[in-house]
Amino acid sequence: MRSISHELETLIQQHLPQLKAIPGSEWTHKSSPTKWSRKEIMGHLIDSAYCNIRRFIVAQYEETPTIVYNQDKWVAITGYQHWDTHDLVDLWYLLNKQVCAILNNTSPEMARRICRTQDQHTIEWLAIDYIKHLRHHLHQVLQLEPVAYP
C-alpha cells in the first residue's frame, strides 16, 4: 500500500501548483447546463476522497461494508459552484494527504479486505481505482491530454 500512497502523493504534489495557477474566472464556466464546471469537478474529487476515506477505514473493522454515494446529488447539495476556489483546492489537497496517511497505515492483510460499492472490491483495488479516477478528472480540470476512466 505504501507504493500506492507514494503514487498518490506524487500525483497531488505534481498537480497542486497547476491547480493554483488556474485563473479564478475559469473555474465556474460550464460547457453546457448539464456539465460540471471545474469547481464542481474539484468538488466531486473532494466527495470521492471523503467516500474513499470511509471505505478504506471502515472495511478494516467491519465485515464487507457497503459504502456508495450519488455523485450528482453530492455535488448539487454541497454547492461547490459557489465555494471559494482556494478553499476547494486546499480541501482537495488535505483530504488526499489524509488518504495517503491511511494507505500508509494499511497492512497488506487489511488491503485484501472487501468493501462493497456497486460491486465488491478489495481496499487495494479501490485505492488503485481511486488514483485512476483522480487522474482522469485532474486532466479534465487542467485541460491536459484526456485519460480514459471506465
Which features characterize this protein?
150 residues; globular; single chain; 61% helix; mainly alpha; 6 helices
Question: Would you mind describing this structure in some detail?
Answer:
The protein is built from 6 helices and 2 strands; from the N terminus they run H-H-H-H-H-E-E-H. It has a two-stranded antiparallel ribbon with strand order 1-2. By secondary structure, the chain is mainly alpha-helical. Helix 1 (2-20) runs antiparallel to helix 4.
List the helices and strands and how they pair.
Blueprint: H1 2-20, H2 38-58, H3 71-78, H4 85-104, H5 108-111, E1 114-116, E2 120-122, H6 123-141
Antiparallel strand pairs: 1-2
Helix pairs in contact: 1-4, 1-6, 2-3, 2-4, 2-6
Order of helices and strands: HHHHHEEH
Assembly state:
single chain
Q: Could you tell me the mean pLDDT?
A: 96
Q: pLDDT under 50 segments (min length 5)?
A: none
Strand tally is 2
Treating each run of at least 4 consecutive H or I residues as one helix, how many helices?
Answer: 6
Helix content: 55-70%
Our measurement of the CA-to-CA distance between the termini, rounded to an integer number of angstroms, reads 23 Å
* Content of β-strand: under 5%
The geometry reads as globular
| Main structural class | mainly alpha
Q: Major beta sheet, specifics?
A: 2 strands, antiparallel
* Rg (C-alpha, Å): 15 Å
Major β-sheet strand ordering: 1-2
Short description:
With 150 residues, the protein is mainly α.
